[in-house]
Amino acid sequence: MRLPGDLEGLDGLVIPGGESTTIGKGIESAGLEPALRAHHEAGRPVLGTCAGLIVCDRDHLGLIDASTRRNAFGRQLQSFEADLEVAGIGDEPLRAVFIRAPWVESHGPGVEVLASYEGHPVAVREGTVLASAFHPELAEDPRFHAIFMAMTTSARKRAEEEEKACER
To answer: What is the pTM of this model?
Structure first.
């Protein structure tokens, strides 16, 4: 289990897949919500995958202006893989693994849809939050994680520049 102090100094944070209700209860019992919000408000990136997408949505932590639908593609037996066109990773499709996956039911105007499946948004970005309904860690393609790493590197550089400006 993580504690609020464990989030200090992180350049980026991943909220992984799993079970969103259980993750939410863990966040509550560990008192992590203020630290998660502080991480986000400081402009440090967050990656939410599958259940992490749900946890980031407006009905939970509110880190992204979107609402999600749990198990939108079905239960465990309806898990599947699909090739997705994802904005920002090149022309080759990305193999995506969906396990009891949500989708984005609705989103605000500031949310960029990076990929959809059967007309439903399954990868989105808003500010420093990147989220997907699929599990990019289960495929052997690093390009989705590369988006997050670029966001993290950029945020770190901005923070360093701000620190230098404050020292002057």
So the answer is: 0.93
